[in-house]
Design goal:
The protein contains 18 helices and 21 strands. Helix 8 packs antiparallel against helix 10 and helix 16 packs parallel to helix 17. The longest helix has 29 residues.
Length: 517
């Protein structure tokens, strides 16, 4: 048997090569791997001895030669193939142990373009794919974790079993597909290309398996994009509590996306990926109190995220109820002690928690037989200067602040959505209704239930899409709401405007819809 070894990741390679050599397997190697194995005292042959051609172009060309690839690709049971090898004086290669230039690591350390492209492996993928294609005759390893499996089977059976070879073959094609997808993603980012191309290949790396998915009978894992992006759940550090579930991650992500809209101290409480309470204030304690009081029922067993450090006083308030997850950019020492007194609460440290996602990144939804891909909803308004007051009455400064807050919240609430805000506090959030008037009535009812009917006097209302009829504005007026923000664009816009003018209400058109399904 003959093995070709050429690896960038040299984890375990010396021990593996020593065991191969002890079994009488001839080893051929190249470049830095050759030097490493030679220095370890292993009897080894250089690739130039096999090819009769020196490495050249700063090592760009080493193994791209018929003496290598014919030795890998020859089908041993094919008499013509074996006769040609004999005539060409080419020996077979039975083991291919290769891993690739560290392209991912080069990208993650923000190397310049020239260095990054230089770390695109050419010969490595060619050898891996050749060996994987000819899996019935060649065992191929791209993962150091498989070295022991290969050695054990050779030691016990003088060969690697066909089942194991096929398993190793499948790992190779997964690996090379991942590698090429990383390169394509890098090229798109370098070109600042947000277009939706004719074909799309995405790649993610598993962070960990989960106990189950949305329901106990579903399998689930958590995967991450390969990037240096900060402020994401994939970069969160769990300081306390049991493992996150599928639903925990999905719901927390919804809360984080809303939190990123705010610069002032803000607390966002979320349930089933919808905000149930949002508060802004001069400090994080008061922001949390507002978020809690907005809906004390729904916050129970929910998720709360903050854009400021959690202090001792805020931690004491949080601990008065059961919440699944608390996420923040930092925790004071005393706050951490207080929160850790509850066994099951998950505490997530997310540095740069307010850092926004790349506006060219994709939002992906799976449907049967395919996927829907769009760029993320990265904007709040098309242009803030284009926000139009369409009523006779102008909004007051406080109303404008509340309207902006309501608009941020409704953007991240499942459609059809209505959000009511007053004095920096969400007081009514109604997500996911099949018609807008139901959402409007539900938001009003929620506000009246938790804060009293008087809370609606002077409040503002946001709608994620236009009003097809004036009924929502009429309900808002009856409740005491004085200002409304919506995209506009209905053929019946004039009817809603007339209701506002008749009742001394102000209304803003944003010119941008925020459906969220």
């Amino acid at each position: 048997m003959r093995a070709l070894i050429s690896v960038s990741d040299k984890t375990g390679i010396v021990e593996f090569a020593q065991r191969l050599s002890s079994l009488g397997i001839e080893i051929v190697s190249t470049g830095g791997t050759y030097t490493t194995l030679k220095n370890a005292g292993i009897n080894i042959k250089g690739v130039p001895e096999v090819t009769g051609f020196p490495e050249c172009l700063d090592g760009r060309v080493k193994t791209l030669h018929p003496n290598i690839h014919a030795g890998i690709l020859a089908i041993r049971s094919n008499e013509v193939h074996m006769k040609q090898l004999s005539e060409l004086n080419i020996d077979t290669i039975d083991l291919v142990i290769v891993n690739l230039y560290p392209f991912k690591q080069t990208v993650l350390r923000n190397a310049d373009r020239q260095e990054t492209i230089e770390n695109i492996d050419i010969g490595g993928p060619a050898m891996l794919r050749s060996a994987a294609k000819n899996y019935q005759d060649v065992a191929v390893a791209v993962d150091p974790d498989d070295y022991d499996l290969i050695i054990k089977e050779i030691e016990e059976n003088n060969e690697v079993s066909l089942d194991t070879k096929f398993y190793l073959c499948s790992k190779v094609f997964e690996h090379t597909a991942h590698y090429d997808a990383l390169i394509a993603a890098y090229m798109r980012k370098e070109r600042n290309d947000s277009s939706l191309t004719q074909t799309i290949t995405l790649t993610f790396e598993k962070l960990h398996d989960m106990r189950y998915g949305e329901n106990p009978h579903q399998r689930a894992s958590f995967y991450k994009e390969i990037s240096n992006s900060k402020g994401l759940l994939t970069s969160a550090v769990k300081l306390h509590g049991k493992e996150m579930s599928f639903n925990n991650i999905n719901d927390t992500n919804g809360a984080l996306e809303l939190l990123k809209e705010f610069e002032e101290p803000t607390a966002v409480a979320c349930k089933h990926a919808n905000p149930c309470g949002v508060g802004t204030a001069d400090n994080i304690y008061d922001a949390y109190i507002k978020a809690y009081n907005a809906d004390p029922t729904s916050i129970f067993g929910g998720i709360v995220v903050f854009n400021r450090e959690i202090d001792e006083r805020t931690a004491e308030e949080i601990n008065k109820i059961f919440v699944e997850i608390v996420a923040a950019p930092s925790f004071s020492e005393n706050a951490l002690k207080i929160l850790k007194s509850k066994k099951n609460i998950r505490l997530l440290l997310i540095e740069n928690i307010t850092e926004k996602s790349d506006e060219n990144s994709y939002d992906i939804k799976k449907v049967a037989g395919g996927i829907l891909v769009q760029t993320i909803d990265s904007k709040l308004f098309p242009d803030e200067s284009e926000i139009e007051t369409v009523t006779l009455k102008e909004s007051t400064e406080q109303e404008k602040r509340d309207l902006l807050m309501a608009w941020k919240i409704v953007k991240h609430t499942k459609s059809n959505a209505i959000v009511i805000v007053k004095n920096g506090q969400s007081i009514g959030v109604a997500p996911g209704q099949v018609n807008r008037i139901w959402a409007c009535k539900q938001a009003i009812e929620h506000a009246a239930e938790f804060l009293g009917a008087e809370s609606l006097k002077g409040a503002v209302l946001a709608s994620d899409a236009f009003f097809p009829f004036p009924d929502c504005v009429e309900e808002a007026h009856k409740a005491g709401i004085t200002a409304v923000i919506q995209p506009g664009g209905s053929i019946n816009d004039h009817l809603s405007i007339e209701v506002c003018n008749k009742n001394n209400m102000s209304m803003l058109f944003t010119g941008m819809r925020h459906f969220k399904h």
